Amino acid sequence: MRFVEQVSTSHARGSSARLRLGLGLTLAILLIEFAGGLLSHSLALLSDAGHVLTDVFALGLAWFAVEQSKRPADKRRSYGYHRVSILAALINALTLIVIVLAVTFEALRRLMAPEQVQGGIVIATALVGIAINAFVILTLRGGGDNLNLRAALLHVTGDVGASVGVIVAGAVILLTGWLPIDPLLSLAIAALIAYGAWQIMRETVNLLMEGTPAGIDLGAVTNEIRKTDQLTGMHDLHVWALSSDQTALSCHVVIDDVSLGDAEHVVRDLEGRLCERFAIGHTTIQVESCHPCGEIHHGAGEHNHPHQHVVLTSTSARPAPPRAAGSSGRPRSQTRKSNPSPGS
């Protein structure tokens, strides 16, 4: 689940349309395989339907992310509604864990007491699923740098592989009558679902803990900042994800004693490089010169006091959620003497 992009409105609409179509077709596969599994008594086919459910979640979340990106921030949620997708992903992971437990229990039961499976129905149903998935893959191709579409494409491609395994199991049952292949393949598919659920759970927890995004090397970010002209020091660096497709950064940089205009040029250059190299679209950079606060500890709860120095605060968004009501649209230099406003 790692998405960072800036698209036009027309591009977003095109992505949304493709994802809706893919979601509808994948739901059709889910219903077909579920019905086929019940008719053929194949646990492997039912397990593959459970794997298709992961595709439904993936496509649904990708479509949801595109739609939420169109929703503006408001006074209650100044960063917008991007984190709703994180909560949905958490529900997704928990649901998949329940599916894994159910499939594993039934597979172990069938290993001890095998049930007759209709291999022909298994093969026919899996072939229909592969055909529809192939069309979904063709539909989702051409997304370019749209990582939502690329991630959904990977999910659907993985499901094709699982369906091929189901066909092999159906063929083995038809040719040899060896029934244990069905629950054994079900356990393999359950392991595949469990791996996907673990990946989703790990990334979701990291996002909720505001950890450094998995695709960001904090050391490389630090080195990039230190290459900035006229910069003499930096501290209080934080990189976190607002959602699966929105990365933010804040830091304090110390520069030479220059004019306000020159300081703004330094900040703009730094913002551009961070966005281009690391796809960090929302940056807040505090510039210090005469009285840097590098010796102050900025841990949790330790930044609740005024700083008596001149600062320049710059906020950019490439893309970034709209500013909260009352925020400034231009960098300004001001002297903080006492009782700073909340958020300083």
Please give the alpha-carbon distance between the first and last residues. Answer: 33 Å
SSE class: alpha+beta
Order of helices and strands: HHHHHHHEEHEEE
Assembly state: single chain
Largest sheet: 5 strands, mixed
CATH architecture of the largest domain: Up-down Bundle
Total domain count: 2
Share of helix, binned: 55-70%
Percentage beta strand: 5-15%
Average pLDDT value? 77
- Sheet with most strands: strand arrangement: 1-2-3-4-5
Spatial shape: elongated
Radius of gyration: 26 Å
Count of helical regions: 8
Overall description:
- This protein is α+β, with helices and mostly antiparallel strands and 344 residues long.
- It folds into 2 domains: 200 residues, Alpha-lytic protease prodomain-like (Up-down Bundle), CATH 1.20.1510; 118 residues, Alpha-Beta Plaits, CATH 3.30.70.1350.
- Helix content is 57%, strand content 12%.
- The chain has 8 helices and 5 strands.
- A 5-stranded mixed sheet has the order 1-2-3-4-5.
- A hairpin with a 2-residue loop joins strand 1 and strand 2.
- It is elongated.
